[in-house]
Amino acid sequence: MKEFIAFNEQRAEIYWWMSSLFARELTEQDIEQYRGGDMVTFLSGLAMTPDLKEPVEAFRDAIKRLESREDAQLELAADFCGLFLSTPKSGALPYASMYVGESGLMNDKPAQEMNKLMEEYGIALRKEFNEPADHLAIELDFMGNLIIMANQQGSKEQAEPVMQAQLDFINTMLLNWLPAFSAEAKQRDKFGFYAAATEVLVAFCHLDTEFLKGEEQ
């Protein structure tokens, strides 16, 4: 159970990291952390997994290229706004409804489904993050909380329904739109930092489904 809990904590950490990356622009301090210390160790660890090596290396390359980018923080903030806070014609909007909704508008069925899931599991929206429930940052934060919920069960057997819920969530609420979102980001993000981040996320979600399927067997 200890190994199970420790591994789940690592999984949750990755989802929460990605959630924060798509929630707001990076600050100067954030960028400095990406260039050294714990974040370098964290990304190096991810790159040791064969399925993540290529996308993580591409992301690390984008971080390295920030060093030669004039006014890196301002430019990266502009990339964030242009991609995630613009229009469907010019950006890659981080809302599931824009990709798998029925109307092509915000707050479609995926947002309603997320609200139901959060109510079902007692996971609340952060009040300071005023976005529809199907925003990528909210979905990833929810996934992190769902993982920790499994750790709070008395045994691996008791945790099984929550692990199954995680697998269902990735398949029906993340991987049903993330590849299309990533393709949009790759097309529109000229510098490539956020495009690379989306590719890391998609690769990790695929890898995580394999882990969860193994747990179910």
TrEMBL record:
Record's keyword annotation contains Cytoplasm: yes
Pfam name, any one: Nitrate_red_del
Keywords assigned by UniProt, alphabetized: Chaperone, Cytoplasm
Coiled-coil region list: none
InterPro entries, alphabetized: Chaperone_TorD, DMSO/NO3_reduct_chaperone, HscB_C_sf, TorD-like_sf, TorD/DmsD_chaperones
Domain of life from the UniProt record: Bacteria
UniProt-annotated location(s): Cytoplasm
Function: Involved in the biogenesis of TorA. Acts on TorA before the insertion of the molybdenum cofactor and, as a result, probably favors a conformation of the apoenzyme that is competent for acquiring the cofactor.
Family in the record: Belongs to the TorD/DmsD family. TorD subfamily.
The protein's name in its UniProt record: Chaperone protein TorD
Name of the gene encoding the protein in the UniProt record: torD
